Every structure is written in structure tokens, then in C-alpha cells.
Amino acid sequence: MAGATKSSLSFLLISSLLLAPSLSTSEATVGHNVPIASGLSWTFYQNTCPSLEFIIRNYLMSVFVNDIGQAAGLLRLHFHDCFVQGCDASVLLDGSASGPSEQQAPPNLSLRARAFHIINEIRNRIEKACGRIVSCADIVALAARDSVFLSGGPYYGVPLGRRDGLTFATINATLQNLPPPFANTSTILSMLATKNFNPTDVVALSGGHTIGLSHCTSFTSRLYPTQDPTMAQTFAKNLKVVCPTANSTNTTVMDIRSPNVFDNKYYVDLLNREGLFTSDQDLYTDSRTRGIVTSFAVNQSLFFEKFAEAMIKMGQLSVLTDNNGEIRANCSARNPRSMSDLVSVVEELPVEEALSEI
Ligand code: HEM
């Protein structure tokens, strides 16, 4: 990374930290008007792990100062976790004898490998400080919030108390729940409506594309064999240089105006017909969402407010709480069944069934 870019990034990180309302969730934080799911709370670890948010923030700052791209990877990881089977950290589970994991589903193949390592590293640090009491799903949600905030975006409170799931979703379920980049607004609106998101939420969440990278294959169908007429000429010409063929393995930034800063420039891109995916650009073509895109392009505070609300909603999709999940000792694997679990299986079931469970 060039020296100038690195020092401006350090400036952004330091000013973000100074502007943070507090290291614990503050009542004044954006988004506190969003209802919270039963079993979650704004102060869940206040007594059991008061340094939780500090540990995460501190570690992420040390990562981002060298590679701010990781912020995008962590934000996308939270989205992919929550949309498939709820925010239960199932996307983190490695495959097992039970079949290919969620990670092997095509949309998850481009999640950044380092995002998974970062989550495990944070988990280890938290366990050292507080014991094994914080779920991987909560860590993913907090890491996504800090990724947004440390890249220049809004700070919002994260209701906590999620438990980690015991199973991962099938490849089919993953495909059915994550919209593809070639989807138009009608498809995106109806897919997200099933998860209770309104058009404002949809446009706001899509603003996550203000940071990060995409592989050529996610959008070359808009370039080859014929160019999508809704794409600006010069933008298309430049993309063809980065992606000389439809199956090029190259990557490019998703927001050409400010690729590493969480701001409202993604919407300015759309107004200029410089959105990367059909799912992005069509939000400006479709009359149901066009006005929302414009309102965010001209008013960053409005975008930040709506993004924070939609993220708090997203972070609560089908959460597991209390005894409905576990606190993993390793975010990539469910906990081994303990002797006491086996004893309870043996006690509860007839002998043959108990043996087959084991
Ligand atoms: C609305 C439907 C969405 C679609 C169709 C979509 C699709 C995609 C695709 C295809 C990529 C590029 C993958 C690649 O080629 O490497 C991507 C990247 C990304 N998406 Fe989305 N996405 C959607 C919603 C979201 C949401 C809700 C968020 C977060 C709030 C998000 C955050 C990101 C980020 C940060 C990246 C860059 C990741 C990186 O640099 O590693 N996306 N998305």
C-alpha cells in the first residue's frame, strides 16, 4: 500500500476511534429504535466480559491499518451468515462427514479466507480475557459493525446473546437465500421481503457495496457478449480492460469513487450508471427504488441511519438464544459431544436408539 494511502487510512482509523460514542453499547447509538429479538440484549456481556468490544476493536484496528480490505470481507461474512439459516455462525463451520458445508456453496467460495482466521483469532483473545462465554455469531456481528465504523461508516449498537448453531445449511438452501448479482430489483425485493426487509432496507443494505472487491465473473455477463445498455460507456470500457474475458479471474473495486471508505458514493456511482452488478444498477432503474437511491446519494446521514437500522434487523435474523445453540470453542467446528451429552442420550433413549446416536 502506498505511504500516502496508509497514512490517510491511519487518520481515518484514529478519527473513527475518537468519534466512537463509547466502547460499550451506548443508549444514544443509532438504531436503538429497532425492536430486539427475545433473548438478545444491548448489555448481554456487560458483567461477564466488559472488555469484549475493546478487544475486538483493538485487534481489528491492527489488521485494518495494514489491509483495510479485510473490513469488506468481514462485513460480507456477517451478511452471508445471517441470510442463510439466521445469524448462527453456520457459515463458519468446516465440512464434515455429513456433507459439503455452507462454505462450499458457490456464493461463499469468494468469501475471504482471512475473514475466517480473523474471527477465530478474536475468539481466542476473548476466551483468554473472559473465558468461553461469547458466541462466534456475536463476534461476527460485532466485527462487521466495527468494519463499517472503522472504514468511516456509522456506529450502531449490536444486540448480543446469539448462540452458535449446531448444523450448517445445504448448498441448495444457501443458493436459495443469497441473491445472485444478476438478479433485478423485482427479484431482490421479493427475496428480501421474505426476511421482512422493506425497499428502504434493501437499498440501504446494498450500500454495503461501498467497500470491497468483486471478481470479474460476478459481472462479466454485463459486458460479454453484449454490453448492458444501462452501463456507462467509459465505465464498461475500463471494466473490459480489467476483465479481458468473461471468465477472467481478476478482481476490481466495487465503488470506483472511494473503494476503501464506507460512504454514500456507491449511490453516486448508481446515478452515473457505474454500478457493478445488475442487482446494484437496477435499484436506480426501477421506479420503486430509484427515489431511495437518489435520497441516499444526496444525503449521507440519511443513508447511515437507514443502513444502521437495516443492519440491526439483519443481525437478528432467526437468531438462536439460550439453550438453542452453543458457545463454540472453535468457530470452525461445533463442540465435540461431551461425555455428559452421551450420558444424557443413553439415559433418555432406548438402548438401540442411544447406541445409534453415539
Ligand atoms: C442485495 C443482494 C446482494 C448481492 C446480489 C450481492 C452480491 C455480491 C457479490 C457477487 C459480491 C462479489 C463477490 C466476488 O465476486 O468476489 C459481493 C461482494 C460484497 N458484498 Fe454483496 N451482495 C448483496 C448484498 C450485500 C449486503 C447486504 C452486504 C452487507 C451489508 C454486502 C456486502 C458485500 C461486501 C462488503 C462485498 C465485498 C467483499 C470483499 O471485498 O471481500 N452485500 N456481493
Q: How does this structure look, described?
A:
The protein is an all-alpha fold and 358 residues long. The chain has a domain at 3-178 and 315-324: Orthogonal Bundle (Peroxidase, domain 1). Helix content is 48%, strand content 2%. It is built from 15 helices and two strands. The N and C termini lie far apart (52 Å). The model is unreliable at 21-28, 342-349 and 354-358 (pLDDT under 50). Protoporphyrin IX containing FE binds at residues 69, 72-73, 75-76, 79, 110, 112, 179-181, 183, 188, 205-206, 208-209, 211-215, 218, 279. Residues 69, 72-73, 75-76, 79, 110, 112, 179-181, 183, 188, 205-206, 208-209, 211-215, 218, 279 line the site of protoporphyrin IX containing FE. Belongs to the peroxidase family. Classical plant (class III) peroxidase subfamily. Belongs to the peroxidase family. Ascorbate peroxidase subfamily. Keywords: Calcium, Disulfide bond, Glycoprotein, Heme, Hydrogen peroxide, Iron, Metal-binding, Oxidoreductase, Peroxidase, Secreted, Signal. Residues 39-335 form the Plant heme peroxidase family profile domain.
- The gross shape turns out to be globular
CATH-scheme architecture of the domain at 3-178 and 315-324: Orthogonal Bundle
Distance between the termini: 52 Å
Q: Any low-confidence stretches, pLDDT <50, length ≥5? A: 21-28, 342-349, 354-358
The string of secondary-structure elements, in order, is: HHHHHHHHEHEHHHHHH
Helix content: 40-55%
Helix tally equals: 15
- Look up the CATH topology of the domain at 3-178 and 315-324: Peroxidase, domain 1
Bound small-molecule species = protoporphyrin IX containing FE
Task: Note the main sheet.
Answer: 2 strands, antiparallel
CATH class assignment of the domain at 3-178 and 315-324: Mainly Alpha
Q: What is the strand content?
A: under 5%
Class inferred from helices and paired strands: mainly alpha
Mean pLDDT: 90
